[in-house]
Design goal:
The chain is an alpha/beta fold and 378 residues long. It is built from 13 helices and 10 strands. It binds pyridoxal-5'-phosphate. The site of pyridoxal-5'-phosphate (PLP) has 14 residues, from helix 4 and helix 5.
Length: 378
């Protein structure tokens, strides 16, 4: 069978070469494994590329989102507006902080960002922050969201797990959180980062990520300090030197990755239009994006299970982004009497196709041909 000879087209693959290997070896030789100069270098490069003054590296994006809330003083009895259509970590971070998530429905099934007018109506005196998420790498107008936040004197946090170095990301919010998990646009295996604008906040975040201690091991090693105080209870949310070293290499390649992703998405759009025009790509073609995902909308009533099985039989991996958070057993209690009809329709029809820098245009053709077979047979 033709399909068994084909290599699996995976949803997303990391791309490493000798540079990452050498970077890791250098850390091992240096024998300084955490909280050192490679973390500082990775942070300053990341901040500079975003045009934001401060970056704080962390062990993953989930803890980054949690720390944003803690640092902004959000806790018990506060509410935070969140998308239900996101990875569950967005909502979980709010719950870790002791606050309550308020789910906001989507603008539309074609533009699956939370709806700004509905969000404004949901704001009450307990609402302290809004978390937006740049779905699939498509930027969710952070400037407009900041204006809304300012009108109500609340905080704007970006879950930017899909969108490192995307246009405007990090610039307009109080804080933004990034992920370097294995399937993200750039990866350190596990890893995360917060961007923020004030020196005071950056220092607070650095203390909070390291147990709340007032000095770091590096400061003490260099003789800058002999002891420390713990003025508030912090966490161990640090990133190590090995992963920071990988992060710097990945960051240097990110613009190239993004260009490749954009070319593949342009080809997907053309081929879908030509071969299976009833399957819609999301967002207008020129919507600012770093193309983390290749999501499409299947026609209403399509048997998605059958489509996914047909793709699988032809060695094409596919997925759903995301099962809505408000439908999970642990999270449905936060919805109350409300419903999120657009989120639910979207989640029923969405399908995510392979997208990563090592795919070829021919791979895209194969995926689109497979979709045609799934919908119409051979
Ligand atoms: C991956 C992801 C996270 C969590 O990132 P980790 O680094 O794995 O903790 C949070 N939000 C979104 C939207 C994500 O895709």
């Amino acid at each position: 069978m033709q399909t068994q000879q084909r290599q699996l087209l995976s949803l997303g693959d990391p791309y490493f070469d000798h540079q990452e290997e050498e970077a890791v070896q250098a850390v091992i030789k240096s024998a300084w494994l955490t909280n050192g100069e490679r973390v500082q270098r990775f942070e300053s490069e990341f901040a500079r590329l975003h045009g934001v003054p401060h970056a704080i590296a962390l062990s993953n994006c989930t803890v980054a989102l949690h720390l944003c809330l803690v640092a902004l003083g959000i806790g018990t009895s506060d509410k935070v507006l969140v998308p239900s259509l996101s990875f569950v970590a967005t909502t979980n971070a709010v719950i870790y902080a002791g606050a309550r998530p308020t789910f906001v429905d989507l603008q539309s099934v074609e533009v699956p960002h939370i709806d700004i007018e509905q969000a404004e109506k949901l704001i009450d005196e307990s609402t302290k922050a809004i978390m937006i998420m740049h779905y699939g790498g498509y930027v969710a107008d952070p400037k407009a969201w900041r204006q809304l936040a300012d009108r109500h004197n609340i905080f704007l946090i970006e879950d930017a797990a899909h969108s490192p170095c995307a246009p405007e990301v990090g610039l307009h919010s109080h804080m933004s959180a990034f992920s370097f998990f294995s399937n993200k646009n750039m990866t350190t295996g596990e890893g995360g980062m917060i961007l923020c604008h004030s020196q005071e906040m950056a220092e607070r975040l650095k203390k909070l990520r390291s147990h709340g201690m007032t000095t770091s091991t590096l400061d003490r090693y260099k003789g800058h300090a002999f002891s420390y105080d713990v003025p508030e209870v912090g966490y161990n949310y640090r990133l190590d030197e090995l992963r920071a070293a990988v992060g710097s290499v990945q960051l240097s390649k990110l613009a190239g990755f993004h260009q490749k992703r954009a070319e593949l998405v342009a080809h997907y759009r053309e081929q879908l239009q030509a071969v299976v025009p009833e399957i819609q790509p999301l967002f207008p073609k020129n919507h600012p994006s770093v193309h983390h995902l290749m999501p499409v909308l299947l026609p209403s009533g399509t048997d998605r299970q059958h489509v996914m099985q047909t793709l699988k039989d032809r060695a094409v991996q596919s997925s759903i982004h995301y099962p809505p958070t408000h439908l999970f057993s642990a999270h449905s209690q936060y919805l109350g009497e409300r419903t999120l009809p657009i989120t639910e329709e979207f989640a029923q029809r969405e399908l995510t196709l392979p997208l990563h820098p090592q795919l070829t245009l021919q791979d895209v053709d194969w995926v689109v041909e497979s979709l045609k077979i799934a919908l119409h047979g051979n």
